[in-house]
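In response to the reviewer comment on reproducibility (Comment 2.3), we provide here a single inverse folding case reported in full, input and output, so that an independent group could reproduce the run without further information from us. The structure tokens appear first.
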């Protein structure tokens, strides 16, 4: 399938050509055509954070305040994190970028092959060549995904999901059953929303990725894969092969 991409911003200078700190590529005004919000909920650029590239939401550090104004319910967040994961891995595979999971995301895969139910974001790592390629060629690109891309419209997948559903045990309480039914209804609603609107993900690269020093604690995240509808994101860091 052809990768659907639109360029959000263009830069006259390559990120790899400059070692100096750069201003943020996309402040709130620059993403007004991409975000559904009218107000920015990001932490401000004060003196203490003047050299920090990524600014998280004021209400929760696991959201991008340009695209979110409040935290999501747990089951809704889990649903969107699954789509975030699939879209990122599929995109990196298509453009030939080697990436792998780390931190809590890695532990979840090791223990049960799933995202931890309490996870608020996901963590991935790249080698230096891959980060450089993302910075030079893919920074500030928007990637479109449809329900079909996620397998929602695949009748085989839908039948398999129905097949694994079993009747609840006799001792299941009415309250627990009602909760499960409520989650199932919300999940179906979320799937229908994706079928109607699709999803857009922004790939944003921190120009400070070329700084290999561990002293720069404000820029430990080298790139992010951001859900423009929810503000959830994947933190991407670079594995440097030698110390500075």
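Designed residues, in position order:
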């Amino acid at each position: 399938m052809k990768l659907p991409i639109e360029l959000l911003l263009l830069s006259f200078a390559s990120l790899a050509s400059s070692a100096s700190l750069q201003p943020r590529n996309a402040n709130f005004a620059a993403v007004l055509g991409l975000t559904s919000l009218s107000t920015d909920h990001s932490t401000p650029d004060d003196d203490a954070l003047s050299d920090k590239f990524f600014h998280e939401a004021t209400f929760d550090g696991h959201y991008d305040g340009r695209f979110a104004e409040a935290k999501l319910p747990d089951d809704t967040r889990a649903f969107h994190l699954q789509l975030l994961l699939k879209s990122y891995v599929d995109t990196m595979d298509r453009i030939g970028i080697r990436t792998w999971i780390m931190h809590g995301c890695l532990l979840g895969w090791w223990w049960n092959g799933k995202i931890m139910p309490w996870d608020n974001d996901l963590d991935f790592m790249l080698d230096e060549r891959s980060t450089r390629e993302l910075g030079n060629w893919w920074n500030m690109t928007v990637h479109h995904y449809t329900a079909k891309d996620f397998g929602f419209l695949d009748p085989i997948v839908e039948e398999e999901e129905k097949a694994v559903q079993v009747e609840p045990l006799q001792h299941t309480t009415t309250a627990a059953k009602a909760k499960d039914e409520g989650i199932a209804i919300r999940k179906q609603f979320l799937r229908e929303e994706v079928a109607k609107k699709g999803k857009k993900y922004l790939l944003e690269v921190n120009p400070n990725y070329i700084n290999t020093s561990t002293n720069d604690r404000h820029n430990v995240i080298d790139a992010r894969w951001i859900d423009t509808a929810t503000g959830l994101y994947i933190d991407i860091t670079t594995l440097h092969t030698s110390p500075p």
